[in-house]
Amino acid sequence: MNFITGRHLSRRTFLRGAGASVALPLLDAMIPAGRLRADPTKAAEFTRLVCIEESMGVAGSSDWGDARHLFAPAATGRDFELVADSQLKPLEAFREYMTIVSNTDCRSAEAFRAEEIGGDHDRSTAVFLTQAHPKQTQGSDIFLGTSLDQLHAQRFGQETVLPSLELCIEGIDRGGGCAYNYHCAYTTSLAWASPNQPLPAIREPRVVFERLFGAGDTAADRAARRRTDRSIIDWIATEVVRLRRTLGATDRVALEEYVEHIREIERRIHLVEARNTSGEERAMPEAPSGVPDSFEEHMQLMFDLQLLALQTDLTRVITFKTGFDQSNRTFPGSGTTRSIHGASHHGNVPEDIMDFNRINTYRLGQLAYFLEKMRDTVEGDVSLLDRTAIVWGSPMADGNLHNHRRAPLLVLGGANGALEGGVHLRAPNGTPMANAFVSLMHKIGHPEMATFGDSDGVFSLDLAGGAPSGGSGPA
Predict the structure, then answer these.
(1) pTM given for the model
(2) Are 385 and 97 in contact (CB under 8 A)?
(3) How far from 224 is each of 46, 70, 229, CA to CA, in Å?
(4) Furthest-apart CA atoms within the chain: distance in Å
(5) How open is the CA angle 42-46-48, to the nearest 5 degrees?
(6) How far lies 155's CA from each of 141, 191, 422, 440, in Å?
């Protein structure tokens, strides 16, 4: 390939074979002659966005937990300390990429009318990325708001194969409907393409894989390919060899690493399915055979698939729901045998609050796997983590009280130089979380956004951003 004359490989190159379609990561051959590699301090054409919801709040949002800095550090600014029991401790290696936003509220998840009292679990998920109040209905007249991930996808995702990708970890089955006269879409859907269009999330790694790589034109094709016990890479092997011959040495290594990564993920998915159909007793017998019983294994597979989707520019927008409200799942690796919902109702007993914090810390700690992978994946001269904004938070605050004041929020990644990182920002009492989302959207390509959800101003995500507008009362 002649790079001197400017001939180059298209960023939209796919390797195709037998119903498979494998997109490629950014290679040197895709950069036209004379174009410099990207400078991480300069804004790129787009910023990737990943939004991750935690359900049922965190121990650090209780009065006792906040006083002991289980989520929000004692100090604001750059000189904050993560105490030994901090839920954020597992992410300390990524401190430079971390913007901690504490003391913001998700007031739209609260009951506005007497008949809505008690439905906090049924409203919360829908509110997180919309910051809008759900219409109480079991019928088809659901109404909420467009979520921020979908606003980003509408602007930056239309030229990708998947404008957005919606994922989840846990299933929900409420038979005849959800509680407190709320449609189940409010409980299950993080992403809303419009006020009455929730987007369903995918739970099984195999389904995600086949959506990314088109592994077969029909269900029968996909089943037949799986029966051959061959990797999708085997079906495009000829194309891989042909492409490899045209690449320089650096790109050949990158291509080899990439195809082996795909092969390894496929192998892990196959092992899960084989284990779960072997007849051995399962920890989660109600889960589909493609869903790992291990929370950690499931999270890592889903994070690896997200990495592939972002690395290949198949999508630029992902939502990831890591649990469901009122889940009774336990987490043996957390150090407690209590279920997450049971532990969230700690009754303000310090020992029980710490049990809940152990679960919170274990669950959030899984994010370190993804952050490390994103940091170690280079696009040009910049990591994917530098290219991306990652939102993590919960619309619930203190699960014991079912309240939505002092809800936890993290913004991670570099967002193409727009996020400073390494800072703790504590909002004045009464500040809507939506104010922080308006600031984030300004930074990732939506400078015209004046309001979002129930925002009443902008809460700056910059340390030197001046006094935040909106909210009331002292910090």
Answers:
(1) 0.93
(2) yes
(3) 38, 50, 9
(4) 71
(5) 110
(6) 27, 15, 28, 15
Q: Convert the pLDDT of each residue in 243-299 to its tens digit.
A: 999 999 999 999 999 999 999 999 999 999 999 999 999 999 989 999 999 999 999
Q: Which residues contact 126 (CB under 8 A, 6 or more apart)?
A: 132, 134, 144, 185, 186, 187, 189, 190, 192, 198
- Give residue 264's identity as a one-letter amino acid code: E
CB 338 within 8 A of CB 242: no
In 142-191, where do the E strands start and end? 165-168
pLDDT at 9: 84
Rounded-to-integer distance, Cα 203 and Cα 218, Å: 20
* b/e per residue 222-251 (b: at least 16 CB within 10 A): beebbeeeebbbbbbeebbeebeeebeeeb
Exposed (0-12), middle (13-18) or buried (19+): which is 346, by Cβ within 10 Å?
buried
Per-residue pLDDT tens digits for 88-147: 999 999 999 999 999 999 999 999 999 999 999 999 999 999 999 999 999 999 999 999
**Which amino acid is it at 335?**
G
pLDDT in tens, 238-251: 899 999 999 999 99
> Which two structure tokens, joined as six digits, stand for 106?
């998700």
Amino acid, res. 283: A
DSSP state letters, 202-216 = B--HHHHHHHHHT--
On the question of pLDDT at 176 being above 80, the answer is no
Task: Enter the tokens of residue 433.
Answer: 């979380």
pLDDT of residue 3: 30
CA 475, 433, 456, 388 torsion: positive or negative? positive
- Answer yes or no: are the C-beta atoms of 109 and 123 closer than 8 Å: yes
**What is the rounded CA–CA span in Å between residue 189 and residue 431?**
25
| Residue 297 structure tokens | 């294994």
Choose among 206, 184, 162: nearest CA to 310.
162
How remote is the C-alpha of 217 from its chain's centroid? 28
Q: For 78-171, where are the alpha helices, taking DSSP H only?
A: 120-128, 148-156
CA 466, CA 196: separation in Å to the nearest integer? 37
**Cβ-count burial 119-135 (b if 16+ within 10 Å, e if not):** bbbbbbbbbbbbbbbbe
**Structure confidence at residue 17 (pLDDT):** 77
Dihedral-angle region of residue 471 (phi above 0 means left; psi in -120 to 50 means alpha; beta otherwise): left
Per-residue pLDDT tens for 336-348?
999 999 999 999 9
89: left (phi over 0), alpha (psi -120 to 50) or beta: alpha
For residue 258, give every residue at least 6 positions away whose Cβ sits within 8 Å of its Cβ, in sequence order, or none.
24, 25, 311
